[in-house]
Amino acid sequence: MERGADAAARALELVLASLEDSKAEDIVSIDIAGKSALGDYMVVVSGRSNRHVSAISEHLISDLKDEGLGSARVEGLETGDWVLIDTGDIIVHVFRPEIREFYNLERMWAVPDIEDRLH
Q1: Residue 5, pLDDT score
Q2: In what order do the strands lie in the sheet with 25-31?
Q3: CA atoms of 28 and 92, how far apart (whole Å)
Q4: Residue 15: what are its φ and ψ, rounded to 5°?
Q5: In sequence order, which residues have a C-beta less than 8 Å from that of residue 75 and are 6 or more positions away?
Q6: 43 burial via Cβ count (<10 Å: 0-12, 13-18, 19+)
Q7: Widest Cα–Cα separation across the chain
Q8: Which pLDDT score, from 0 to 100, does residue 33 have?
Q9: Residue environment code for 78-104, b if the CB has 16+ CB neighbours within 10 A, otherwise e
Q10: Which residues contact 58 (CB under 8 A, 6 or more apart)?
């Protein structure tokens, strides 16, 4: 594996451990390497309420900083409906369940590549 891919895989392990520790629900990890210039992985999770979404997000941001990955961009923390945390390699979406269901990001990224459909 490449160094960048190793770093992304280690960061993904950290993210998933932090989310588990925060009792995030319905954790889905999607490998988007080669499918998007946005990053290597997208992680989609739910929190039970606005407060839980914010707590999950704040805990993850703290864990990222503790591991030297503190330059993440964060959007939506104020409202707690949908928080986006972008580490560069990993994009984490923390939703309230009804917001997650409305946007349904997993389905959008689950669409097979055109090359996959041709074979």
Answers
A1: 77
A2: 25-31, 41-46, 90-95, 82-86, 73-75
A3: 10
A4: -60, -50
A5: 83, 84
A6: buried
A7: 46
A8: 85
A9: eebbbbbbbbebbbbbbbbeebbeeee
A10: 77
Q: Give residue 111's pLDDT.
A: 58
The confidence band for 1, taking pLDDT boundaries of 50, 70 and 90, is very low
Q: Is the pLDDT of residue 113 over 80?
A: no
Residue-wise DSSP of the chain: --HHHHHHHHHHHHHHHHHHHTT-EEEEEEE-TTT-TT-SEEEEEE-SSHHHHHHHHHHHHHHHHHTT-TT-EEESTTT-SEEEEE-SSEEEEEE-HHHHHHH-HHHHHHSPPHHHHH-
Tell me the C-alpha distance between 8 and 66, whole Å. Answer: 16
Q: What are phi and psi of 95, to 5 degrees?
A: -120, 155
Instruction: Write out the two tokens for 30.
Output: 């999607």
Size (the chain), residues:
119
- Tokens read off for 107: 């389905």
Alpha-carbon dihedral angle through residues 93, 68, 62, 59, given to the nearest 10 degrees = 50
